[in-house]
Fold these 4 entries.
Entry 1:
Amino acid sequence: MARTVAILGGTGPEGTGLANRLARAGEHVIIGSRDPLRAQEVAKQLREQIGGSAQIGGTDNASAAAQCEVAVLTVPYSGLTPLLKQLKPVWKPGTIVIDTTVPLAASVGGAPTRMLGVWQGSAAEAAKELLPQGVSIAAAFHNLGAALLTGDATVDCDVLVCSDDDKAKHVATELAEKIPGVRALNGGKLENARIVESVTALLIGLNIRYKVHSAGVRFTGLFL
């Protein structure tokens, strides 16, 4: 039976893309948003695009978080702390959170190719501090841009998964590898998310300079 995966802040390009890919892979997806009507509309559009028996619903962020086994955070960095403070009372023990957040300066009106300084070291480490005991976190999907997640084409990109929790790392890895072409790699401890997050700013710069929308990363020399 498919688990329930909540995509929180899921009406933006990254969240919608991940909802599309995970629903195509057979997961039961709930799109969460500050605007539940917007979430329902995006869910309807994705169901029409995917067809078949795609299981995608939409609701507010708190309701989505309360009923999921896995939650994927796809909000801008400026919205991360307010969202997690709002959700603190609703998490179920055992929930796994996957953080995709990148602290780009664009979230506060700056350049999209610049990173903000985060006292904890990374957005993922900041998120961990705001989660209650019994809820584990992994960092993943940072370098998998929204343009790569639309449709159902094979993706030429690796996904680095960082976590201090083996189960969270396993679940994030499993979900990443449900996207055709994606190879999930063990990125080590959660503190390494600060390195992975910064690569996103570099990829955005490459997209701008080379006038593309799909720059990604591949690591060579690994025989898995």
Note: The longest strand covers residues 157-163.
Entry 2:
Amino acid sequence: MRTLLDLVDLKALALFAVICIPIEQLLPMHRRGILRKGWTTDIAYLLVNGLFVRIGLALTVAGLVFAAAAFIPHAVPAFIQAQPLWLQIIAATLIGDFCLYWAHRALHTNPLLWRFHSIHHAVEELDWAAAYHAHPIDDVILSAAALGSVSILGFSTAAIVAYLVIYSYMSVVVHVNTRLQIGPLRWFLGSPEFHHWHHSNEHDARDRNFASIISFWDVAFGTVFLPRNRIPQSYGIDDFMPQGYVDQLIQPFRRKTAEPAATAAIVTAR
């Protein structure tokens, strides 16, 4: 029987820690210690979420593939799998990230879905470990949008695995607390500069920068926010969020929960 720790990719976590922590200490966007507020809760997310997410994601993607078989012609996966692997990886990344963009927007605009996604946005000090601080249902929704879309189209296993690696690593990279920038590429690719604005609690930054890998989706659909000579000054949400792991898992099911902080901004500004 697999142990709980087997469900956590310890090698990947160690690699992220070895690379990200020195960068955050030497070239931080916001200077602070290695352990941020709520780090004990982060450990619970790192150790426990894997089980919930893997089960939920497997069931969800299997259901999507089964349902899609009824209306997607066999010629579609046959055509896709006939393409060279490098082209499949590029196509899978484009399609998966496009679907992820819209799923992410839905998590912000739908009050019910926001109950789960707000757990991730409640983090008040952003760093690489914040990528793992998310409700399992939130994780399943985003992962299913990304992986389900390429699975139902019939991309080869190798292409899906390659996209999964890109998606997983970029999900961590964009949360890193660093002032390192990628110049003009920020309009096309995700980066800490780009994603930190997504987490900002400043009113003009709310409901912006939804993309994960390809920031151009936000440029194309009018949701990009990348001001010059300015960095986010505050993160988190307006409403109360309990600190413990179990309390945060329960929070979305409580009668009174946080709704998107951006809702008020949408009403007044648009």
Note: The chain has one domain: 4-269.
Entry 3:
Amino acid sequence: MKAMILAAGRGERLRPLTDTTPKPLLCVAGKALIVWHLERLAAAGWREVIINHAHLGQQIEAALGDGSTFGLHIVYSPEPVGALETAGGIAAALPLLGEQPFLAVNGDIWCDWNLSRARRLAQAHDQRLAHLVLVDNPPHHPGGDFGLQAGRVCSALAGRSGALTYAGIGVFWPAFFAEVTRGTVMKLRPLLDAGIARGIVSGERHDGRWVDVGTPERLAELDRELAQAHASPALL
């Protein structure tokens, strides 16, 4: 099973930090955000990782190389200036991802979700083509994104009590992106809404630690938290 780290975003809300450094290379507790992902993937048994990039993408390739430092094999999926958004970026990388289900993780989050679950989810034989990890709504996104009913993601609860936020972690089957033309700029939400209507999107609530590192303040807060927890590996 392969994993894809989505690392093509411009990081507008993190400017001026991202004017000279791509968002995934911003550091917390002495490590780039994307390195936290790579180390956790390697520890969970992954070996093949695809990373898309656009803004200052060559810095990402220079920093991570072929992935051998992390016990991984990294292949890059470059995108044009402005990037292709999440669905467009994944669709462009499908030839690299292959025909099996894959894990997709946003490069600008920090989360302690058990990555090993992705493999078990990928082995399920049912009608799903996507499985989302959802979390409690953070203060900056109080309305949430979706509801969760009997293991299926629904749109009806969005903005209401019981709504949850998409964590930026999901297991996807390539067929979920089959109708997205390569090179198309497309967000993930329209595909998810269509998939939810078809009943092919399952999900789960993660009650552990999750941070959307979208602003300098949240980046600094996570840096302090992880630095304080450094002496307690179980917290990381």
Note: The chain has one domain: 3-231.
Entry 4:
Amino acid sequence: MMINCEILRKHADPIWEANFKHPFVQGIGDGSLQIDIFKHYLRQDYAYLMGFARFFGVAAAKGETLAQMQTLAKILETTLNVEMDLHRQICADFDIRPEELEATRPAPYCQAYVSYLLANAYQGDMVDILAALLPCSWGYVEIANRLKKIGLPEEKHYRQWIETYSSREFWDLNEWLKSEFDRLAASVSEEKAQKLQDIFSYSSLWEYMFWEMAYTRQGWPIAWE
């Protein structure tokens, strides 16, 4: 069984189409998303990015070559200093202070998704790590570019979100991740190929659940201090 990014994407297409058609994503695209929902997303995505940065830290430590480690470290730097800075800038417009972001507790689906990524990072090899990662990195780039082709919304924060994830920088980093996956997966066994497809599909499903978490403003059923 051969496996590469094209095959991963083809098998997970129903999930990816559901992700794109989710009302949260469509609301970003046409500017109709309620601001309170977007604010909940920003807080939770900030918590997610904290875990995502740790994921890249483990990935970089497991790098097999200097070039691989350098690129993964660059993505870690982009996460910490581009994506998270974008969140802080937007949150400031909504009077959400940095200390409030830092204190955000992950909602159930956010916590579960981060845990899934970290489990693959700690337990898997580099090709497992890339299979777990691609639905987030590639998914955001694809969604943003598809929304941009339809037309940018007037709401400046949603427009900025689309422009950020459709930027050349994010595109180039994602293309490297895809090419690296294809290189490492070229000679894997049939059993390993199926495992990689499963990892990719599960991460794709977690992307959907993250949109759902944001849209429903999911929290924990029991409050605690």
Note: The chain has one domain: 33-215.
